[in-house]
Amino acid sequence: MSTASVDLTQNDNTKSADCDNDFDFSKLPDKPRNLNMERQRSFDERSLVEASPRYSPWAENGQRHIDNDSVFSPGRRSSFTTPRSLYGFEPHPMFAEAWDSLRKTMVYFRGRPVGTIAALDNSDEKLNYDQVFVRDFVPSALAFLMNGEPEIVKNFLLKTLRLQSWEKKIDRFQLGEGVMPASFKVLHDPVRNTETLMADFGESAIGRVAPVDSGFWWIILLRAYTKSTGDSSLAETPDCQKGMRLILALCLSEGFDTFPTLLCADGCSMIDRRMGVYGYPIEIQALFFMALRCALVLLKQDAQGKELIDRITKRLHALSYHMRSYFWLDLKQLNDIYRYKTEEYSHTAVNKFNVIPDSLPEWVFDFMPTFGGYFLGNVGPSNMDFRWFCLGNCIAILSSLATPEQSMAIMDLIESRWEELVGDMPVKVCYPAIESHDWRIITGCDPKNTRWSYHNGGSWPVLLWLLTAACIKVGRPQIARRAIEVAELRLAKDGWPEYYDGKSGRYVGKQARKHQTWSVAGYLVAKMMLEDPSHLGMISLEEDRQMKPILKRSSSWTF
Ligand code: GLC
Fold this sequence. Notes:
The chain is an alpha+beta fold. 38% of the residues lie in helices and 10% in strands.
């Protein structure tokens, strides 16, 4: 079936609040190559299936599902200041402390809550940690939504939307209309008793990079809000529709691209410093994919929406094909690359990007488990970044960019490489660290990003919520439970640091802020989601039901 004829009729207004399944992967124009994806059921999974009546991770048809009859459905719990356990048992004392901390970070504009400040650490120079960051607010927003407090999320979405319409300039150069801010701040004038907003679109940021991820997170959050509240009226407003269109116009425009992935500068996302992720970083590609899928359910089928929906659908097909084919690495694929021929010309080339086998780093041969795999950090001409990145791989699972088998394989790898990726504090932002000469060349001698610190192989507690969501999605919440237990040993005692240093994350980060809000919120979201897995729906997108893959466990998988 041609991509143009994909049925988009599901995208009507009435279904926009809960329709996730309007992207049919079975309609991919071509089949990517076979992957050898053998795996074994982990102990966790077995014990979970046997022990818990609440989970039935894999149905006969291979689709994971959560038994909706036996799980608590979300709903408003706004009367709670500090939510209690749904199942009667007392939550960990850290849980109450975390809620108190999160509430203290709330930022008000003209009397209304509009976001949460990045860190409440008064001991150090503030830099921009006194601002509301768009990406940092996402776990806070999810925590509030899960607790039945959508107001702050709605206000945040509307405020940032207003900021988007500001004129954005760096020196004499004007930025694209759709760019969303990295962060904003409320300025109080005590003399005039007024409040104004100040935003940063990259013109103040260290390195002067625009946050490519902000717009994607904004769309993803708009869907989470819609899904959680059932209120599609916000997303349907002309302002929100226009905001989405402007964001998408930035990344769907035609140019010189030969790939459906998005070409990015270094530092344009969570890793907001030079770390050698320029090109086609997995974090942005996965967020791009997820934002496109969310936009597909949120955009109205009016004259302007229709044309965009068609472009989104085509891009999603191309993007999923490209990512699943070229970014995926498992033992078989690694072996193939190891034996690649180079300098192949024409359509018959196997080594399409002309990756030179000598560029394979030694660590990857040991890191790759027999069962498992992951999406590479970056793929471009003669360039494969073999580093494992947490955020991109978790978002690939949540957005269903990863096939069910690939999702399982990512989890298998996390289990096999637990010491390296979780160790003493979940989760490594990327693995491994860049050292010595590579560090000099790739980071530009960045003293903040020395090996096993900060963005260079540091451990970030905020990533716990993404890991937890991904674990629940693949039906293996036991893995998340283990990670949360590891975090609970130290996170509160250490004062909720922004990140940890060292190979296994044993040291509080050299320049880490304490009372970092997304470390607090990430923990809360992880806990609440584990307790009530139906929350997952607001941040996860299922594969199209029509796809119904015939999954053969422990055998090779064909797309
Ligand atoms: C750091 C992080 C960035 C985050 C910001 C505020 O710059 O790299 O991802 O948004 O701090 O917490």
